[in-house]
Automatic annotation (TrEMBL):
Pfam families: CHX17_2nd, CHX17_C, Na_H_Exchanger. It comes from Musa troglodytarum (fe'i banana). GO terms for molecular function: antiporter activity. Belongs to the monovalent cation:proton antiporter 2 (CPA2) transporter (TC 2.A.37) family. CHX (TC 2.A.37.4) subfamily. GO terms for biological process: potassium ion transport; proton transmembrane transport; regulation of pH. This is Cation/H+ exchanger domain-containing protein. Residues 493-622 form the Cation/H(+) antiporter central domain. It is a multi-pass membrane protein. Keywords: Ion transport, Membrane, Potassium, Potassium transport, Transmembrane, Transmembrane helix, Transport. May function as sodium-coupled metabolite transporter across the chloroplast envelope. The chain crosses the membrane at residues 32-54, 66-88, 94-113, 125-141, 161-186, 198-220, 240-259, 271-291, 353-375, 382-402, 417-440.
Length: 774
């Protein structure tokens, strides 16, 4: 008995996955673990190397992944293939395919965690019409075009495979995958643009509706072709019933319980995160046994997890990196190794299949354009929307791999047809992403109407400004600016308060308006930050109107929210707070804010003010009748200084504001160019309007060199509350000579950078650096 057991173990014992090392005369690559680790390193390194080159051409990561997978396949020259064959040999791919399968399952779960099906309620008729048209029209057309292959439905097509695979190809081409579209738009930094949000809504509707259709079609087709018996088809339907019961009666109540147990602003317990991930893995085994694919249940589980904090953010932060960055590339490597251009025996049929695919992509673009144009979208944006819906990625690749599984007997597609599908997907994604990046300008000046500066604003007109804030720290200073700029009913202000929230644990960025057209507030979604401005609005009694918004988006594209809101509301001024490291701003927030400011300066459709502020304890409360504010304006000349003086002129109308203007002159008279003429006209107008205003003082100071200019800046009295200065000074400032040597923050300009430096850390005044829109 013992001997039989030993012999059985000797026959069935697998090889040791670990190597003893080259010093023990072993070949490490003959063992599973070192071979698998080397495969990961080679694939990820190759993918990043290609992406580093292609990203300058606006190519998304998926294009680099597919190309790197193909390059590491059998299509390379013989010399290279011989050496790679030792690493990617057939008997060593089993573990890689297993890890890739786990990566797909977890990746789809995390992607769907970021999704919010509730966005469907806000999609509107436009998104529904675009989604339905972009799916139904290309599917029907391709269904008719497949007749050109002139074969019977139960026969094989040389160079393609079974006739049935054309039906699956039609569905895959027609469907727009929400996760794929979202990830590529995020890479192109268009996720939180108007067109990006509409595309995401349309792809979400198309994806959810098409998924159900694909499941039903797969079961019905398999049953009709006798590949599934009636009993097996019924068992699959029972599997879906069990899955739905688990989702809505077990998983969803459990998830809600976890969210309720987590304190507001607190972290989810590690045990809960682990248990959720284990549930996803377990349902992957169930999905592989009873559903159409091993990752299908993961999609539904992810959709039920609430996006954002606390649980969605915790799952993304703690679990997404490994599948997304290390395991998913293995999927593309597996997909690429099935591409072997040397085995093409029917090139004409492959060319016909490529034309067939591109016909589907073209019709899909046109089908999306028609309803978009009907809803008054510009033709160019409608065409770009259609191209976005054609983005191809992991979802399509996984479906193609299922049709052409080279390691099972279930393949219904020949290898060269599979290669043609992959090539078409890479080409359409590369072309579409390039065209979108080149031709889509979310901040086109065509949408901007009226004046966009304070200087050119009519005296009795309402001043509209956007105040984007990341936290509560700069709010007291913004309120002081609002109060100083709103003297009475003759100087009304409308401020659009935009609370910027980092996109975490979500796939879609959004802008939430907390006040409807009738002026009614949605207090449920508002926070303390908004309430402070609403309370201030009530004290001003019609002089100041507040419109609260919340923008949820990545740091790297928050400028789109700021600028798009400025375009939509036709504002004149954007006030962006500047972070101060000495006030406790962390490194990530400091760099993110500086990047946002730089982008706003170059993209804003109006004038911009950068508010460099000092620390204040608490919000306090502004009493309009007791408000006292001292403003200093440094005026060298030029467009930005004129805009700063115009802001000061509006403040001078307030009974509690005193304004001191220092005009800096060169030792010799300047040539009378246009800038000088405009400077003198604005100063003369300012003097005339404030001739009887005892709270306004104007002085002229002559400086002859850089040292005197810097001394003038350093001599500013600390009794001031605000210093107004242009970002770029005129030619008489003498500062351009030392700009490169002194400046640390180019977004503030030379004077602003000096006033924000450590020498003024103890000063009590804030600085408003102004850039005029030209």
């Amino acid at each position: 008995m013992a001997s039989s057991v030993l012999s059985y173990e000797a026959c069935t014992r697998p090889s040791d996955p670990f190597s003893d090392g080259v010093f023990y005369n072993e070949q490490p690559l003959a063992h599973a673990l070192p071979l698998f680790l080397l495969q990961i390193v080679i694939m990820v390194f190759t993918s990043y190397a290609i992406y580093f080159f292609l990203r300058r051409f606006n190519q998304p990561r998926v294009v680099s992944d597919i190309i790197s997978g193909a390059l590491l396949g059998p299509t390379l020259p013989y010399v290279v293939t011989r050496y790679l064959g030792a690493v990617f040999r057939a008997e060593g791919l089993s573990l890689m395919r297993t890890a890739a399968g786990l990566g797909i399952q977890m990746h789809f779960f995390f992607v769907c965690v970021k999704m919010k099906p509730g966005h469907l309620k806000r999609c509107g008729k436009k998104a529904f019409a675009i989604a339905i048209s972009s799916v139904v029209v290309p599917y029907l057309l391709l269904n008719e075009l497949k007749r050109v292959f002139k074969v019977r439905e139960d026969s094989m097509i040389e160079g393609i495979g079974y006739y049935t695979c054309l039906d699956y190809i039609n569905m895959i081409v027609s469907i727009s995958s929400f996760p794929v579209v979202g990830s590529i738009l995020a890479e192109l930094r268009l996720l939180n643009t108007e067109l990006g949000r509409l595309t995401m809504s349309a792809s979400l509707i198309a994806d959810l509706g098409s998924s159900f259709y694909v499941v039903v079609y797969t079961i019905v087709t398999a049953s009709r072709s006798m590949s599934l018996s009636v009993l097996e088809a019924a068992s699959k339907m029972i599997g879906y019933v069990i899955l739905l019961a688990f989702l809505f009666f077990v998983f969803q109540p459990w998830i809600r319980w976890i969210v309720r147990r987590t304190p507001k602003g607190g972290r989810v317990w590690e045990g809960h995160v682990v248990m959720v991930i284990l549930a996803v893995i377990a349902m992957g085994a169930f999905s592989d046994s009873y559903l159409s694919s091993h990752w299908e249940a993961s999609v539904y589980l992810g959709l039920l997890v609430p996006d954002g904090p606390p649980l969605g953010t915790a799952l993304i932060e703690r679990g997404e990196f490994i599948p997304a960055e290390l395991l998913i590339p293995l999927t593309y490597l597996t997909a690429g190794r099935w591409i072997d251009l040397t085995t093409f025996t029917h090139p004409k049929m492959s060319a016909a299949l490529l034309l067939y695919m591109f016909a589907g992509y073209a019709v899909k673009t046109l089908a999306a354009m028609v309803p978009a144009i009907y809803f008054n979208m510009p033709i160019r944006n409608a065409a770009l929307l259609g191209l976005m819906l054609n983005f191809t990625g992991l979802v399509q690749i996984a479906n193609y791999m299922g049709l052409a599984d080279a390691y099972t007997d279930n393949s219904i597609m020949e290898p060269q047809a599979y290669a043609a599908l992959i090539v078409s997907g890479v080409c359409i994604t590369a072309i579409s992403s390039s065209l979108v990046a080149i031709f889509y300008d979310p901040l086109s000046s065509d949408h901007v109407m009226g004046c966009r500066t304070v200087q050119h604003l009519m005296p009795q007109a309402e001043l509209r400004l956007v105040a984007p804030v990341l936290n509560e720290e700069p709010i007291p200073h913004i309120l002081n600016l609002l109060e100083a700029s709103s003297a009475d009913e003759q100087t009304p202000i409308c401020v659009y308060v935009l609370h910027l929230v980092e996109l975490m644990g979500r796939a879609t960025s959004t802008i939430i308006a907390h006040k409807n057209r009738k002026g009614q507030l949605d207090a449920h979604q508002m926070d303390r930050l908004h309430n402070v401005f609403i309370n201030y609005e009530q004290t001003k009694k019609g002089i100041v109107a507040v419109q609260p918004f919340t923008a949820v988006s990545p740091y790297k594209s928050m400028q789109h929210d700021i600028c798009s809101l400025s375009v939509e509301k036709n504002v004149h001024f954007v006030v962006v707070p500047y972070p101060r490291k000495e006030l406790g701003a962390n490194a990530e927030l400091y760099q993110a804010t500086r990047s946002i400011i730089s982008n706003v300066l170059t993209q804003a459709p109006c004038s911009v003010g950068i508010l460099v502020h000092h620390a204040l304890a608490g919000f306090g409360q502004i009493v309009p009748g007791q408000f006292q504010y001292h403003v200093k304006i440094l005026f060298w000349g030029g467009a930005d200084d004129r805009e700063a003086l115009s802001c000061g002129a509006r403040m001078a109308l307030h009974a509690g504001v005193s304004v001191d203007v220092t005009r800096v002159l060169p030792p010799t008279e300047r040539n009378r160019d246009k800038d000088l003429i405009w400077d003198e006209e604005l100063l003369r107008e300012f003097q005339i309007n404030n001739a009887d205003n005892e709270r306004v003082a104007i002085e002229e100071v002559v400086v002859s060199n850089v040292e005197e200019t810097i001394g003038l800046i350093k001599s500013i009295d600390k009794a001031y509350d605000l210093v107004l200065v242009g970002r770029r000074q005129g030619p008489s400032s003498w500062l351009g000579e030392v700009m490169d040597e002194w400046i640390e923050s180019p977004e503030l300009g030379m004077v602003g950078d000096m006033l924000a430096s450590s020498e003024f850390t103890d000063s009590s005044f804030s600085v408003l650096v102004v850039q005029q829109y030209v």
